């Protein structure tokens, strides 16, 4: 079993370095930074406020689901991250420098990917005409985290699965 985990970790690291090099143009243009920042917490509040203010049909239910989803996501994500304690790419690699300073020492799962896929899942259920756009944005937020050098691919995959799972769970709740 240990060999299996070592093999998975090796593939994850090789993929990380390949993606980091391949997305250099995106990082150098600052586009990756802006896409990553679009997945920061305050912007979710801003989007909710705009949707509710515009009285978009289904906005109140969307807001309720989103608040419940983030009430579940935040403590679960922090508990997982601080229990599993996987070091970020730059932590044990002296020669590697990420493009941004990470908020903390641990990387698994990616909080940005978790939140983006949670939001995308809830938004897609509430406003299905734009579903593809929400998921494309969430995928770009996740990829930006690898491009900026603060997450391994498995971190963002785990975040996407966790966020999507929480969205599914919240959508099953009667509101």
Automatic annotation (TrEMBL):
Q: Upper lineage ranks?
A: Bacteria, Pseudomonadati, Pseudomonadota, Gammaproteobacteria, Alteromonadales
**Catalytic activity line of the entry:** di-trans,octa-cis-undecaprenyl diphosphate + H2O = di-trans,octa-cis-undecaprenyl phosphate + phosphate + H(+)
Q: What class of enzyme is it?
A: hydrolase
Q: Which residue numbers delimit the Phosphatidic acid phosphatase type 2/haloperoxidase domain?
A: 63-171
The record's annotation in PANTHER family points to: DECAPRENYLPHOSPHORYL-5-PHOSPHORIBOSE PHOSPHATASE RV3807C-RELATED, SPHINGOSINE-1-PHOSPHATE PHOSPHOHYDROLASE
Subcellular localization:
Cell membrane
Topology relative to the membrane, per the entry?
A: Multi-pass membrane protein
GO MF term list: undecaprenyl-diphosphatase activity
Primary subcellular site in the record, as a coarse category: membrane
Domain of life, per UniProt, equals: Bacteria
Would the keyword Transferase turn up in this protein's UniProt record?
A: no
Q: Which Gene3D superfamilies match?
A: Phosphatidic acid phosphatase type 2/haloperoxidase
Entry's EC annotation: 3.6.1.27
The UniProt keyword set, sorted, is: Cell membrane, Hydrolase, Membrane, Transmembrane, Transmembrane helix
Write out the transmembrane intervals. Answer: 31-56, 115-138, 150-171
**InterPro entries recorded for this chain?**
PAP2/HPO, PAP2/HPO_sf
Identification of the protein by name: undecaprenyl-diphosphate phosphatase
One GO cellular component assignment for this chain's record is:
plasma membrane
- Record organism: Aliidiomarina minuta
């Amino acid at each position: 079993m240990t060999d299996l985990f070592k093999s998975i970790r090796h593939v994850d690291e090789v993929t990380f370095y390949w993606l980091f090099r391949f997305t250099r143009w995106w990082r150098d243009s600052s586009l990756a930074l802006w896409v990553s920042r679009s997945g920061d917490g305050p912007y979710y509040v801003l989007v909710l406020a705009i949707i509710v203010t515009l009285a978009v049909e289904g906005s109140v239910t969307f807001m309720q689901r989103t608040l419940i989803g983030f009430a579940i996501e935040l403590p679960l994500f922090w508990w997982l991250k601080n229990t599993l304690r996987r070091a970020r790419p730059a932590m044990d690699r002296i020669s590697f420098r990420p493009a941004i300073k990470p908020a903390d020492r641990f990387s698994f799962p990616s909080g940005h990917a978790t939140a983006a896929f949670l939001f995308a899942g809830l938004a897609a259920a509430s406003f299905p005409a734009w579903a593809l756009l929400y998921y494309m944005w969430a995928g770009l937020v996740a990829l930006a985290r690898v491009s900026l050098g603060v997450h391994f691919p498995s971190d963002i995959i785990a975040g996407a699965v966790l966020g999507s799972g929480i969205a599914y769970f919240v959508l099953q709740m009667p509101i």
